[in-house]
Specification:
By secondary structure, this protein is an alpha/beta fold. Helix content is about 35%, strand content about 20%.
Length: about 325
């Protein structure tokens, strides 16, 4: 088992849950996060924390030299579709240029495993649903550099991360994800939930997504650290349930779980949003032995509702 793991973005929503699970299972964890999207309050006790940027070559080299890192879980990429359309250079700088600094430093340090937290955003507007891992992607750099240096690379393309643990939940500024915005409307923190697009070619006209509990996603990252790969090789794996839920379905489920009204207002589609994103999930089961066990819609919403009730101002409230 890999013992010393660098988690970039370890103060973020998914990263903080990954770190908690790593610590619970006896790993030594170093977190690197610039806190642009993460929260210092989410950093787990027991992990070493370094505030800094992935693209800082000198810092990255010093971390590898000092910490004896054996594996990396990289969760510091940006993944907002609308923002990537509006600010493409921001995404190139962070998701490609900075990530390359990390990857090349890892190769020089002879890191044996690189787990990349990707997302279904790489699929854009897919030609078919469910989406297989063979669809067009932007991870060629990983597939090239990793295997050439004896490094096993696993790209985890998770679909819609959602839900919460007792300690950790979803808190972004601005918040663009559906479930926390639905719950904010239920709490009365926003006047209404804005539904972007009601004329998609889906059963009820609203966009369909595959929702996965954040604890299931974190578990897959740990499995990827020790997955058996053929020498130094690279593989992409979808993390989803294989079942799509529409925006209107989420709203109705939230009304049921919270016992509160969720006012809605209809808006035009957002640029870049595809009608449907649902995962083909066979490879995760075969390669990682992974199946989601906490990703029923009621469990996702119930866990998130509990966290938002106890953290009405997010991490800023305590």
């Amino acid at each position: 088992m890999t013992q010393r793991v660098l988690v970039t973005g370890g103060a973020g929503y998914i990263g903080s849950v990954v770190v908690d699970q790593l610590l619970d299972r006896g790993y030594k964890v170093v977190i690197l996060d610039d806190l642009s999207n993460g929260h210092r309050q989410a950093v787990a006790r027991g992990a070493s924390f370094i505030q800094g940027e992935v693209g800082n070559r000198e810092l990255i080299e010093s971390v590898f030299a000092a910490e004896g890192i054996e594996a990396i879980v990289h969760l510091a990429a940006f993944a907002l579709v609308a923002e990537s359309v509006a600010q493409p250079q921001k995404y190139v700088t962070n998701n490609v240029t900075a990530a390359r600094v990390l990857l090349e430093a890892a190769a020089r340090a002879k890191v044996r495993r690189f787990v990349f937290s990707s997302s279904c955003a790489v699929y854009g507007h897919p030609a078919k649903v469910p989406i297989t891992e063979d669809s067009r992607d932007f991870e060629r750099l990983l597939a090239d550099v990793g295997p050439r240096n004896g490094m096993g690379v696993v790209s985890l393309r998770y679909f819609n991360a959602s839900g919460a643990t007792a300690r950790l939940g979803e808190d972004h500024d601005p918040e663009t994800h559906l479930i926390p915005n639905v719950l904010a409307a239920a709490l009365g923190k926003r006047a209404a939930l804005e539904i972007y697009g009601t004329d998609y070619p889906t059963p009820d006209g609203t966009a369909v997504r595959d929702y996965v509990h954040v604890t299931d996603i974190a578990d897959a990252h740990l499995r990827a650290l020790d997955a058996k790969l053929d020498g130094g090789s690279a593989v992409a794996v979808n993390l989803g349930t294989g079942t799509g839920r529409s925006v209107r379905e989420i709203v109705e489920a939230a009304r049921r779980v919270t016992g509160r009204d969720v006012p809605t207002v209809e808006r035009p589609r957002r640029p870049g949003d595809p009608p449907e994103l649902v995962a083909a999930v066979g490879r995760a089961a075969t390669l990682l032995g992974w199946r989601p066990s906490h990703s029923s819609l009621d469990e996702i919403l119930s866990s998130a509702w509990r966290w938002h009730q106890t953290h009405p101002q997010g991490y800023r409230g305590g």
